[in-house]
Amino acid sequence: MAARPSTIAELRASGWVSRPVKDEIRANAVSRIAAGEPLFEGVVGYEDTVMPQLENALLAGHDVIFLGERGQAKTRMIRSLTGLLDEWMPIIAGSEINDDPYAPVSKYARDLVAEHGEQAPIDWVHRDVRFGEKLATPDTSIADLIGEVDPIKVAEGRYLSDELTLHYGLVPRTNRGIFAINELPDLAERIQVGMLNVLEERDVQVRGYKIRLPLDVMLVASANPEDYTNRGRIITPLKDRFGSQIRTHYPLEIALEQRIVAQEARPLDIVAADGGEPVSVQVPEYLGEVVATFSHLARSSSHVNQRSGVSVRLSVSNHEALAANALRRSLRSGERAAVARIDDLEALAASSIGKIEIESLEEGREGAIFDNLVKAAVLTVFKDRVPPERTLDVVSAFEEGAVAHTGSDVTTAELAALVDDVPALRDAVLHLTGGDESPGAVAAAVEFVLEGLHLSKRLNKDALGDHATYRGRG
What we know:
Blueprint: H1 8-14, H2 21-34, H3 50-60, E1 64-67, H4 74-80, E2 88-92, H5 107-116, E3 122-126, E4 131-135, H6 142-145, E5 147-149, H7 151-155, E6 166-168, H8 170-173, E7 177-182, H9 189-193, H10 196-199, E8 203-204, E9 213-214, E10 217-223, H11 236-241, E11 244-247, H12 254-264, E12 280-282, H13 285-300, H14 312-333, E13 337-339, H15 348-352, H16 366-385, H17 392-399, E14 404-407, H18 412-416, H19 418-421, H20 425-433, H21 439-455, E15 460-464, E16 467-471
Parallel strand pairs: 1-10, 1-11, 4-7, 7-10, 12-13
Antiparallel strand pairs: 2-3, 5-6, 8-9, 14-16, 15-16
């Protein structure tokens, strides 16, 4: 930074060229697209759907509105757009609205340049500072977004007609940057009107002042579909001024949802308080698939309010709750390796009920509907993961009198020993574990096979609390 120009004269000598923010974003987007690089990291599943539309919008220099249900990475994409700005940008030193050294617009900057000419000092701002964001709420005012008279500055002796009495709002302060409004329909319609000039004429006007600030701002907004909320709407003139409307969506494939969960879920491995071996937590891949399948089934269920959406955050929270329950169980039993199993799926109730809106004609049916969705997810994954021919001997062994006890009070060693007590289980279990014969992996697979056979109506199950006994159906 010390080697960068510090005055307008030095800036001119360096060859730096001023360009509109959308041209800047376009140039950086062109470089990434031409190099075959993604626009930004951390957004999965939009490569063939959303991203091409976003690339077109950026190349066209459009203001963008993202339309989609909750939990579809709208805010993440908006915030990631700052990565397409130049890393550093020069401004008139002390400017509140990032005045361009070659074309200042605020009175402060104009006066400074008039006084010092080419020797006027400049500062450099990082691209992260060139982003402004406002969550639209009913109490948001024009003063918040555009600006207002600052009574403190008036009290200092300035006249009301003096432009220096203005306190700039969020939009002017994001001049030469990106400004985002989340949940745009929640913004009062009279306030939305105030944004019309920003989008079309590219200026703002404050109160009755005879001033015009020609701003250089890329405006990005997010909104839920019109049928999602009755809290408000986007007025037609404002919607018309956005160059591109991009519709987001939930993961189209279960494997894709699993990738997102693996990226977002927090690891739970911990160091034991007694200074012993660390406790590791593992969620078998097939149970991770159960979590993702549960979300997909909820998105198509007639018992779940689809207008409120089923966020990917549901899958992330459920995966974390599943791992946490496995960790808690292992801590209580003194085991150093926690592997999630079917018993731990009960923990999904606490992390799910608040995130999905279950609709039922009968009072108190929410729990039953939730349980049925979990069972359907387990059965779907079981049928996909375990070929029927691998379980024929298992069913025969139980028909001949084999009995298995499971539950959170049954230790890993006791569950893993079932492959010795019922040898027919070994083939299906090792198929699930991929050959892993560690006690935790085997115990989790044993429970999964038994529950899958029960849900397939090939074994009987007697459940009492969190304890279960599996028997043949004969």
